[in-house]
Design a protein that fits this description.
Strand content: 15-25%
CATH superfamily of the largest domain: P-loop containing nucleotide triphosphate hydrolases
CATH architecture of the largest domain: 3-Layer(aba) Sandwich
Bound molecules: glutamine
Number of domains: 2
Largest sheet: 9 strands, mixed
Length: 537
């Protein structure tokens, strides 16, 4: 029988519910439990694929090509999970399914209502993950904050869920905030009390309360929360702010006995814990002395979440090289020929991330030219790779006006274009290439050295491709086409032949990097950036 854990959040957003759920997943796996983990987002979009990164942060892509919430990235980084489309559910998907059923006449003339039709569909989705994963424990994070109007059907559904599968098979964990108020800097439990009472209105009494706080909760505070919120005192757990790295959270939780109480309440044996790799990881985070300065030249640098997986993958690459990342976020629209040298003079490595639309493209191209000419390690991802190709065409091949047809449909040199355009098809209804696909690496290239295998499988999210008719001229002039699709049809990676480390990839390696298992390209990029740093010191 699968057990079900539900995470809800109170008081306000951004308290780290996703990290908390991921950390619990990590702890349960360390005790040899099979888990699966899913996110339910109350917004009406079917998926976040169409949302602006400013609204939502990055769109995380799974192996099976689903465009999902960035919390799925956290889940994968903290656990051994490879998540699927079914692990990400939204209000939009739920309503879409129910309305399609209604149109087919599946409800046999009945009035279709939130209870039971919407709540049934929500419960079905949770059972689906349990059945598909065959996990011992399914962790479900309910997005948003208790009290949000759009979250109500989900809370109602999980209340019913407990009745359906039995209290002994479900666990409600509620994450709240303990603010520190006033000149006396007093930690306050009242918002927690209010948020739990809001949850109780719906009929949910949490089994465990996690209190996000900058201080350790005193016994007195825990007694108070216990009394007012109707939870055992030992089930009031501090989720203390971390000092250096989010990867400390599982360790902190472990030290507070979080996983033990979870298992006890689910009537599951404790099992021995093998947590050494995580302990070592955290030790390493604290031991690191060396720094490496990496500039990320992107469009959405104001919002950390917009490049979340890239920043995390850089950290992983850093850890593997015993260095911490000194991140320099460069707003690429501000970069031009006059200031590029000044902006990047102290960068040991430059990463140009993916993106859509014309804004910032010229800044990216200027940045890339500078990195190529000044032999600075350069890592182009997706649009970053496409800009490397455009830059190479314009400045090395002297193709004036070379571009991607995404930005200039009339360009005389469409070095990046849609497959349909390349094949002379006029109807350009190109859909995105999404999810994990194989590629073959060319021996003797830097990308091959990094991976040290010849076939890779990486996740994609793009529409445009390298235009094949330019393959020969690019290679003859020093741009190596270092990875191709197995049928040789698509260019998946490029690199500069005469340069310390300049690699562009059409896929998104950042999605598959984990702290315990860092992505080889990020490891190699940081290694080369450290070399550059040593040379210039
Ligand atoms: N806009 C480009 C394309 O659609 C790149 C996408 C990306 O960087 N994810 O091909």
């Amino acid at each position: 029988m699968t057990k079900f854990i539900f995470f809800t959040g109170g008081v306000c957003s951004s308290l780290g519910k996703g990290i908390a759920a991921s950390s619990l997943g990590c702890l349960l796996e360390s005790r040899d439990y099979e888990i699966s983990i899913m996110k339910i987002d109350p917004y009406i979009n079917v998926d976040p694929g169409t949302m602006s990164p400013y609204q939502h942060g990055e769109v995380y892509v799974t192996d099976d090509g689903a465009e999902t919430d960035l919390d799925l990235g956290n889940y994968e980084r903290f656990t051994s999970q490879k998540l699927k489309r079914i692990n990400s559910v939204t209000t939009g998907q739920i309503y879409k399914t129910v309305i399609e059923k209604e149109r087919r006449g599946d409800f046999l003339g009945r009035t279709v209502q939130v209870i039971p039709h919407i709540t049934n569909e929500i419960k079905r989705r949770i059972h689906l993950v349990a059945e598909d994963s065959k996990a011992d424990i399914v962790i479900t994070e309910i997005g948003g904050t208790v009290g949000d109007i759009e979250g109500i059907p989900f809370l109602e559904a999980i209340r019913q869920f407990r009745i359906d599968v039995g209290a002994e098979n479900t666990l409600f964990i509620h994450l709240t905030l303990i603010p520190i108020v006033g000149v006396a800097k007093e930690p306050k439990t009242k918002p927690t009390q209010h948020s739990v009472s809001k949850l109780r209105e719906i009929g949910i009494i949490p089994d465990i309360i996690l209190c996000r706080s900058s201080v350790d909760l005193t016994d007195e505070m825990r007694q108070k929360i216990s009394l007012f919120c109707n939870v055992e005192e030992r089930a009031v757990i501090t989720a203390k702010d971390i000092k250096k790295s989010i990867y400390e959270v599982p360790l902190n939780f472990k030290n507070s006995g979080f996983d033990e109480i979870v298992l006890e309440k689910l009537n599951l044996p404790e099992r021995e814990s093998s947590f050494k790799p995580w302990e070592d990881l955290v030790k390493k985070v604290y031991a690191i002395k060396e720094k490496v300065k990496i500039a990320v030249a992107g469009k959405y640098t104001e919002l950390h979440d917009a490049y979340k997986s890239i920043y995390e993958a850089l950290n992983h690459g850093g850890l593997a090289n015993n260095a911490s990342i000194d991140l320099k976020k460069v707003k690429v629209e501000d970069v031009n020929d006059d200031n590029v040298a000044e902006i990047f003079q102290d960068a040991d490595g430059i990463l140009v991330p993916g993106g859509f639309g014309e804004r910032g493209i010229e800044g990216k191209i200027t940045t890339i030219k500078y990195a190529r000419e000044n032999r600075i390690p350069l890592f182009g991802i997706c649009l970053g790779m496409q800009c490397m190709v455009i830059e190479f065409a314009r400045n090395v091949l002297k193709y004036r006006g070379a571009n991607s047809t995404e930005f200039d449909p009339e360009t005389p040199y469409p070095v990046i274009s849609l497959m349909e355009e390349q094949n002379g098809i006029k109807n350009l209804g190109g859909t995105m290439r999404l999810g994990a696909q194989p590629a073959i690496l060319k021996k003797g290239t830097k990308i091959y050295d990094a991976y040290n295998v010849s076939e890779i499988n990486e996740r994609h999210r793009h529409r445009y491709e390298f235009t094949n008719k330019y393959r020969d001229v690019m290679e003859q002039n020093g741009l190596v086409l270092s990875a191709l699709s197995p049928d040789n049809n698509l260019v998946e990676a490029v690199e500069y032949r005469d340069h310390p480390w300049g690699i562009g990839v059409q896929f998104h390696p950042e999605f598959k990097s984990k702290p315990i298992n860092p992505h080889p390209l990020f490891v190699a990029f940081i290694k080369e950036s450290l070399n550059k740093r040593k040379k210039s010191n």
